[in-house]
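Hi all, posting the design record for the shared folder.

TITLE: backbone redesign
STEP: 1 of 1
STRUCTURE INPUT:
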């Protein structure tokens, strides 16, 4: 039987094998959903059986950029090809908003 820590480490390694963004998603999901992170992580890992790891990793990158690290969203990104779209974040716009406040 695994301890909680060993269990998490096992899945962290699997996610890191998909890619660095997938591993980042792992940490986000564990932090935001400590009680039920396993379903999301297992779902993302299952995507790597249907899609190339690079696709799943890029989908994770896009999900992180939009703060949307749910399995269904990452699955949709893989299936609709939006992982190929550039991830743009306009820092000037954000700075402008803070300057106005």
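Okay, here is what came back for every position:
SEQUENCE:
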């Amino acid at each position: 039987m695994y301890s909680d820590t060993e269990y998490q480490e096992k899945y962290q390694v699997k996610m890191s094998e998909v890619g660095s963004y997938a591993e980042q998603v792992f940490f986000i999901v564990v932090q935001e959903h400590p009680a039920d992170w396993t379903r999301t992580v297992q779902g993302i890992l299952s995507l790597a059986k249907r899609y190339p790891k690079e696709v799943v990793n890029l989908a994770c990158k896009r999900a992180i950029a939009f703060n949307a690290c749910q399995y269904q969203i990452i699955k949709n990104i893989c299936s609709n090809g939006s992982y190929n779209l550039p991830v743009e974040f306009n820092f000037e716009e954000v700075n402008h908003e803070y300057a106005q406040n």
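COMMENT: Residues 4-100 form one domain.
Let me know if anyone wants the other runs.
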